[in-house]
Design brief:
Radius of gyration: 48 Å
Distance between the termini: 108 Å
Number of strands: 29
Strand order of the largest sheet: 8-7-6-11-10-9
Strand content: 25-35%
Structural class: alpha+beta
Shape: rod-shaped
Number of helices: 18
Helix content: 25-40%
Length: about 700
């Protein structure tokens, strides 16, 4: 026993020869041990401590054996012998005395060793005292401290586990927290099993260490004789204190886990709002039984885990619904378009690192348009957009907006009209959401793209030499703001894709980075595209992988269109442009579109004539009507290859021939059209008319 009271100092020289009164006052007895004579004299108080009558003790140390058990005597002898051998001046030791009634009581002795001039021990003078209360108080304090330490550890387990579960968003996150090495260490368990109630049965979603699965327990009935079923059935915890109890109560399960050396287990019902959602089992191999406090702590822990699992289940249900809705709203398939290689990708946002994915309003679409050629020159509308918000409502709005925009484009409306009508639709929809969008109408026979942008990112184009640049496109406000700003106009930008060029449309989730400027993000993206794979599918995968590695709180939609080289330079296709009064830029864009398309269709020798006639037809509309001119350029095949220019307006008044006179500045338009065109005419179109002209550019039928 450790020396708890030894005084390192020898008794003073004036130590009284008979200190009995002093010691008695302190409930101590004294002794004087003559080592040479082997005589150990004790006073009356010492006799009382040893519970000896005077006639029962003959002053010989051996006589104390009737009161000092053998093991205690060995401890006492060892302490005394050690002090004598090492030259110590004192010793102290606790030992137990068996009193007359058979009870054991703690005693403490302290001796002072007197040596002669040569250092040889001659005499030991000391005291003895009853230490039962002292050690009892100390033991009680130790036990109390141990209990408080246990309570602290158990409270810490609940706090640590609850804190870790606070970050779990999915059921798998909850399982990972609990099955993590530190999680099991906190719980003090060897392994963990969790089951959820589904349709009156319990489905196991997490089972102990690898190789511990018991066949037949993956799905069990609530009425079956398993501890997890019992916990769910009775809504009460099931504690198993020993292997014997486990084998007796649940023999079928015990046969399957005997190799795990389980010594006790606790199965806790997982209850939310008085309804069981499942059960959790904690299995131990280093303990037997549970104290009342341990049981209470486990019940509290089970309640915390129940809330986390319920929250995770609600989250997953909402995410399944939202993702299902979003997937239903996005195009199921992407149509093949003659003359183009296409790739689209969508990646949901990651919220809170790797914990789960969030839904957003980003979308893409590819819309086949009429007027393409059968030999490599299709027409297609490419759409990329982003509805404000990251929730189910954003996905629903996205789906409706995608459908109406697709319908407007398929009806043949020019890009500016498609965007303006989509904006009005969103404004009239019962929502407070706005959306950004970019719509590009591409004629792959000519490579001409007409682009409108509603608050969205500019497109990027990678050329055949590997360079990639951002194409600045004039834009308007986001969709859905018509009520605040009136009917919105969207200017049309024209750009060209040469064979082998790749167009990239994306949402800002691919570009924006925390702390970085948007222009810097566009430059970074352009550099990444420039060194990316040539194949658009591989390039799309590379860009999405980069977005995944970077993470971020926004979803990503991506559309890539690569123009293939035409099988032959044959005419075909259709282009459309709207020109409004007082918009010289639109007129210039139309001239540029006509010249580019005519050249691509192999009719460059008549480009000046076609452009001049088209310009005259447009000017007539702008001067003599109150509305806009809708210009359509077509490549026609048959017995002759022809280019047809149509200019449509809202006036029903037909054009008429006038004599210009010698000094007149007008009246020569119709004469010019008759002179330069091979054939022309006028058609009624609803509430307006269409003036058209055709130019023969080659004889003979174009092969299919």
């Amino acid at each position: 026993m450790a020396d708890r009271g030894a005084n390192p100092l020898s008794p003073p020289d004036d130590w009284p020869d008979h200190p009995d009164p002093i010691l008695a006052l302190n409930r101590m007895g004294s002794f004087d041990w003559d080592l040479d004579a082997g005589v150990l004299q004790m006073d009356a108080q010492a006799h009382e401590i040893f519970d000896l009558r005077p006639d029962e003790y003959d002053d010989r140390p051996e006589s104390l054996g009737i009161r000092v058990p053998h093991g205690e005597a060995l401890r006492l002898d060892t302490a005394v012998s050690q002090a004598l051998k090492t030259g110590s001046e004192n010793y102290g030791v606790y030992f137990r005395v068996r009193r007359r009634d058979g009870s054991l009581r703690w005693t403490h002795t302290q001796g002072y060793i007197r040596r002669d001039e040569g250092g040889r021990p001659r005499r030991i003078i000391g005291i003895v005292r009853d230490a039962t209360q002292e050690l009892g108080d100390s033991e009680a304090r130790r036990e109390q401290a141990a209990q408080e330490d246990v309570r602290r550890r158990q409270t810490n387990v609940v706090q640590l586990t609850t804190a870790a579960l606070a970050h779990a968003r999915t059921v798998q996150d909850v399982i990972d927290v609990l099955k993590d090495t530190h999680g099991l260490t906190h719980l003090g368990a060897t392994s963990l099993v969790i089951g959820l109630v589904e349709a009156g049965r319990i489905r196991l979603i997490a089972e102990g260490p690898e190789g511990s699965f018991v066949p037949g327990t993956e799905v069990t009935g609530i009425e079956e004789p398993y501890p997890m079923s019992e916990a769910v059935r009775t809504l009460s915890p099931c504690f198993i204190d020993s292997p014997e109890e486990f084998a007796e109560r649940y023999p079928r399960l015990w046969q399957g886990i005997t190799g795990l050396h389980i010594t006790s287990a606790a199965y806790l019902p997982l209850i939310v709002q008085a309804r069981p959602i499942g059960a959790m089992g904690l299995l131990y191999n280093d303990r037997r039984g549970f104290t009342a406090e341990e049981r209470n702590i486990l019940v509290v822990l089970g309640s915390s885990i129940s809330q986390s699992l319920q929250r995770a289940m609600f989250y997953e249900q909402e995410m399944d619904l939202a993702q299902g809705l979003q997937q239903a709203m996005l195009p199921r398939t992407i149509p093949s378009v003659p003359g183009a290689d296409l790739a689209v990708r969508y990646r949901a946002a990651t919220i809170g690192g790797s914990l789960g994915r969030d839904i957003g309003g980003d979308w893409y679409d590819l819309i086949p348009l009429p007027g393409g050629t059968p030999y490599g020159g299709g027409r297609v509308g490419a759409v990329i957009g982003d509805v404000q918000g990251h929730d189910t409502h954003a996905a629903a709005v996205m789906g409706q907006l995608r459908i109406v925009l697709r319908a407007y484009a398929a009806e043949g409306h020019p890009p500016a009209t498609v965007m303006a009508r989509a904006s009005v639709f969103l404004d009239e929809l019962d929502t407070d959401r706005s959306a950004t969008c970019l719509y590009a109408e591409a004629d792959l026979s000519t490579g001409v793209l007409q682009v409108v942008r509603a608050g969205h990112l500019d497109p990027l184009v990678r050329r055949t030499d590997g360079s990639c640049r951002r194409v600045r496109v004039p834009g308007g406000l986001p969709l859905g703001l018509s009520a605040e700003f009136g009917r919105l106009d969207y200017p049309v930008g024209t750009m060209e894709l040469d064979p082998g060029d790749t167009l990239l449309l994306c949402t800002d989730g691919l570009v924006e980075q925390p702390g970085a400027d948007l222009d810097d993000g566009m430059e970074t993206l352009a550099a990444l595209i420039a060194v990316g794979p040539d194949d658009v599918r591989d390039l799309a995968d590379r860009l999405i992988d980069v977005a995944a590695q970077r993470g971020g709180g926004d979803d990503v939609a991506l559309l890539l269109l690569r123009r293939r080289a035409l099988e032959s330079a044959r005419p075909g296709g259709r282009l459309k442009q709207r020109v409004t009064p007082g918009d010289p830029e639109a007129l210039a864009e139309t001239r540029r579109m006509i010249r580019t398309a005519v050249g691509a269709w192999g009719a460059g020798e008549r480009a000046d004539e076609i452009e001049l006639v088209a310009d005259e037809m447009i000017t007539n509309v702008l001067m003599h009507t109150e509305g806009a001119a809708v210009v359509t350029l077509r490549a026609l095949t048959g017995s002759e290859r022809r280019v047809r220019v149509e200019v449509e307006d809202s006036s029903s008044a037909l054009p008429r021939r006038r004599e210009a006179g010698e000094s007149g500045v007008s009246g020569r338009g119709m004469l010019l059209i008759e002179t330069l065109t091979d054939v022309w005419g006028v058609e009624a179109r609803g509430g307006g008319k269409c003036v058209w002209s055709e130019f023969v550019v080659a004889k003979g039928s174009a092969p299919a």
